[in-house]
Fold this sequence. Notes:
Layout: E1 2-5, E2 8-14, E3 19-23, E4 34-36, E5 39-44, E6 51-60, E7 71-74, E8 83-88, E9 97-100, E10 103-109, E11 116-125, E12 128-139, H1 141-151
Antiparallel strand pairs: 1-2, 1-6, 2-3, 3-5, 4-5, 6-7, 6-11, 8-10, 9-10, 11-12
Amino acid sequence: MVAKYKDNYYSCVLNSKEQILLTGIKSKAVFGFEEDGDIFYKNITQEELCDIFEVHYYVEYDSKLEHTPLWWEVNQEDFSTEGVYLYFTEGFLPDWEIWDKGICRKYITYADIRNCRVCIEYKRKNFERTNFVDDKGMMDTDSMLKLLEKYCENKL
């Protein structure tokens, strides 16, 4: 989860007992953050957060194999500087790396991606509870990578 607090974006852990903002960037660790090694954290109430949301990244890739999707959801940690890993969780595909039990993966370069989509699923927007999805629509790889950089939880 990502949360917006005091015009900054943070990683956010939400559960029934507490809400915690996390960052590894010292300059963002203001307004009462505590330090634990390289991580700064703050317990907070949801009412104090402007926005709470999840970002979903999708890439269009034709594997040219039957029974495979055209659009693949990709997690932030699967991106690299040159490409992205795609995971197929319904068995094994020819020429794909066996990753885990019943799961295979393939590394594709950004040049192999036809189109991209980013959807932001809001739980809270402008201090109001909501279930709103902001579909950013079709975009090129560079535009998606800019959004990934903006919301990347490893850099928040």
